[in-house]
Each structure stands twice: as structure tokens, then as C-alpha cells.
Amino acid sequence: MAMNHHLLRNGIAKTLGVKEFILWWDSAYKLHVDGFHEAKLGSEDVKERYEYIENMVNLAKKIIGKT
Hints:
This protein is mostly helical. The chain has one domain (5-64). It is 76% helix and 0% strand. The protein is built from three helices and no strands. It has helices at 5-16, 21-37, 43-64. It is globular. It starts with a helix and ends with a helix.
């Protein structure tokens, strides 16, 4: 059984102690589902979420030591 993405997101945020991770994850998830799978997002929708997704990627790079 697959883990609910909300439980995973909340667990990661809590483990890292980064409350903003929830916002970052939600932005990336919406872009993935509504942008990629459903093709419902326009370029402005993507631009609005870019900085949040970039923050999540930068945090991941920092954790794995690639900054």
C-alpha cells in the first residue's frame, strides 16, 4: 500500500524541522498533478510556484551535500 503523500510530506517537514516544506511540497505536487498530468496550469501558475519548488530542491541539495 502506497503511503499517503500528505503523511510523507508532514513527516519530512517534521523530521527536518522546516515548516515551509509543506508549502514547497504542495506547490510541487500541484504542478505535477495539475500541470503535467491534467494540463490545467498556464505559465503564470508555474511561475507562481517556481520559487517554492526551487527552495525544496535547494534544501535537498544541501542535505546531500551538493551546494
